[in-house]
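Replying to the earlier thread about multi-chain prediction with a worked example.

Input:
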Amino acid sequence: MNSEFRTFALGIIGVPLCLIGLLAMIYGDRTGATLAFIADRTPMLLTGSPDFSSLQGGFIANIGMSLAAMAIAGALGIILGIGLIAEFWPTRLLSGFVMNVLRNSPWLVVLYAMLYLLPFEMKIFGVWITISPVVKSIAGLSLPVAANIAEIFRGGIEAIPTGQWESARSLGYRRLQILRYIVLPQALPLMIPNLMTIYAMLFIGTSLVVVTGASDVLFVGRTIIETAGSSTASAIYIYILFLFFLFAFPIAILTRWLERRIGTVSP
Amino acid sequence: MTLSGSRPLIEMRDVRKSFGTYEVLKGISLSVNDGSVVCIIGPSGSGKSTVLRCINGLIPINSGTIRVGDFAVETLKSDKALIPLRHQVSMVFQQYNLFPHRTVMQNLTMAPIQVLGEDPRKVRDRAAALLAKVRLTGKENAYPGELSGGQQQRVAIARALAMEPRVILFDEVTAALDPEMVSEVLGVVRDLARDGMTCVLVTHEMRFAEEVADEVFFTDRGVIVEHGPPATLFKSPSDPRLKDFLDKVL
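Result:
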């Protein structure tokens, strides 16, 4: 992972240096005090509590929501993806319609839709269940991502030569068996880099959930700025930028490394 | 019904098949006796490979009847209904179509285990014997990508045999091979023919067809123009289209 390692080293050192430089330009001789202020508020920004006592919000919530949304989107995406390649054409048409609508909707619009379409609480099996902003956020994020995963799934499957299907059928395999035993094991490695890219996008997209009222890192950041004064705004936002970078950048590097490896090493 | 006696193993009657508006098969009738070797020759695009794919139900036909053993192929609509037929009819492809993510051994054993539900240990023993038969003992744990074209095609033949079929369909199995590898694959097919396996071959290897075939069918533009034992068909062709074809390829 030579070239990727160099990029990673450069980025992981260079970007923080640039951000500190930016802070110094903005805050001048108050840079030291600002850094101390950020360090002091770090537990709050990371977990939503001043002393790591709970993990209810902040950056941890962004990670949690992105993982939950990715899991749901993965399951939905595979179902939708199987629909996209179904033999029965009405299934294909319907899946294609759903996929295109979801994939071409701005994420923010879907989030707003979830905010107003999903009720505040719902009766499931006779029990009233509150649908929290976090749940709405996860639902809103997973829908467009599911559509993207469905497309990645379809593309991966169609990259496998039709001869594989033909010979498997001649051996008596049925359609879903062929997918499971023959096509998917070959297609999955091709899909992984794309899946990681969409996950990185989803993760960055979790910053949008602030509109639902979920206490993610931006929500916490805003609260801090409101209490500590608007002079801290630049510092807080630069710091949040840094947190997102710290999480998403390694994924991007890993993706690029996997892409190269899958491209050059034949099975 | 099972009393077949002298009844042919495969019988196609007036089979027609169109892809869109293009009619590939315009009424094909042929029969293959149990234990015989039949070669189908003819120019490219004459429908030879389509005939093979109709026999094992890979391609549904528009009209006519196909009988293989006791199966009326044209009545089997779903892949599930086709499983017993595919147990009896194996196929070997021009591009080998081995499963690249599985070892040679797994390529041979996965369908008998996963589709036919056979005992894995018995299947592995059988597969080892088949690999010896195609002279590939020692390659059990190799991946298809590590083998030469000729070796891959021999694995594909062993994979077809692992299903314990009554007939094997060969679709231009030497067409994608380098010349020096053709003979090793034809040697394996020749062994099978000698052992009494029913074989239907689509081939461009005229010398080989002449040597192993009990009967040769010549197809052109979706019909069978002429058929008969290789001695008559190759030595004294009666149809001008066949004469013309043989002049070009021999």
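The interface with chain A takes residues 56, 58, 79-80, 82-83, 86-87, 89-91, 93, 95, 97-101, 110-111, 114-116, 143, 145, 156, 159, 163 of chain B (CB under 8 Å).

Feel free to reuse this layout for your own posts.
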